[in-house]
Design a protein that fits this description.
Bound molecules: pyridoxal-5'-phosphate
Strand content: 5-15%
Oligomer: single chain
CATH class of the largest domain: Alpha Beta
CATH superfamily of the largest domain: Type I PLP-dependent aspartate aminotransferase-like (Major domain)
Structural class: alpha/beta
CATH topology of the largest domain: Aspartate Aminotransferase, domain 2
Number of domains: 2
Largest sheet: 7 strands, mixed
Radius of gyration: 22 Å
Mean pLDDT: 97
Number of helices: 13
Order of helices and strands: HEEEHHHEHEHEEHEHEEHHHEEHEEEH
Length: about 425
Amino acid sequence: MSDLSKTAAAMDARDPLAAKRDLFHLPEGLIYLDGNSLGLMPKAAADRIASVTRGEWAEGLIRSWSKAGWFTLPMTAGDRIAPLIGAATGQVSVGDSTSVNIFKCLAAALQLRPERKVILAEGDNFPTDSYIAQGLAALVPDIELRYFEKGDNPAAHIDDDTAVLLLSHVDYRSARVRDMAAITADAHEKGTAVLWDLSHTTGAVACDLLGADADFAVGCGYKYLNGGPGAPAFAWVNPRHVSAMRQPLSGWMGHAAPFDFTRGYTPAEGARKLVCGTPQVISLSALDEALKLWADVDLAALWAKSRAMTGFFIEAVEELCAGQPITLASPREETQRGSHVSFDLEMGGFEVMQALAASGVIGDFRAPSTLRFGFAPLYLSFVEVLKAAEYLSAILSTREWDDDRFRIRGAVT
Ligand SMILES: *Cc1c(COP(=O)(O)O)cnc(C)c1O
């Protein structure tokens, strides 16, 4: 046995989360390093969808809004997310997509400081974050969207006109983690609120929103939370803002008394006001079920496993692919790294990822030249991580990727 194999076996033997793996459906022969784009399906989620459709929907019909708890599901699911992000019960609302929640929270942040006109955002953020900010700036008179660039200290770009800073906690390409407490404190000193996108954080990376005194946060339900394709997203607002803040998508399900059918909008108390229209009950139920798997997870162990896995993958790839034109594009320092690892290739990145998929290793390719591998600590093993590195090494050294069948591109990479 090589030293790497011995390490992998030893790490798996003492993995405190090992029992969780059985709770997921793992397709035969697959090493799935894409849980940061779409997590594995929890077996219980499929059962829950079956009972929601055949029982609560088919039989219960309209009665299920109360009897099956459909009406309160946005907050029930939110309460399951709260401990993962350092928030408290009643503070997280689940529904809509991350994109829509960015819109709500950005607009709410602007309204908290109406005399300030600038949204400050990172130029290299995940595109939807910037697109939503662009849409909002085009809609609201006088609002200006300014960008800061990779490597800049965001706080250095804040001036007296900056209402809100929008940024990702974990960068979707490099996995670089931002110091939430320090950036938030710097922004507050200059009177600016911060909206954190936790899409690549929640369920894999340590996060303490209340500890950092953050203002707003949003995040994704279908990545490390395993809520299924298109699962609803979440939004959090600091309790210090919640009564003063308005969110612009003031739909009736966020009203204090939706079934009074009054003409005027009176927001619900607390984070419920972030709900817009009728909750997406089937997908929300699947997410709610997936979230139950976290109830007894030791989060310190989860975060430690994420760091150990990403570190082990870097070590294995660098050892096994020595001499190949592949370079680490993620922080080497583990405290600065989220739960995925990116490598840049000089050429053939797309084809290499396709060849890996043909060997049963699923990761993703991010143009122009990045291979990105996500490590979901809830269900992956170190033996799988090593195998993925071994396949990658074999594909690079044999140049197996350099073949027309690996050049065909689908709509989603
Ligand atoms: C995945 C992700 C999203 C997803 O947005 P949707 O509205 O669900 O499509 C948003 N922001 C970031 C940073 C992401 O990684």
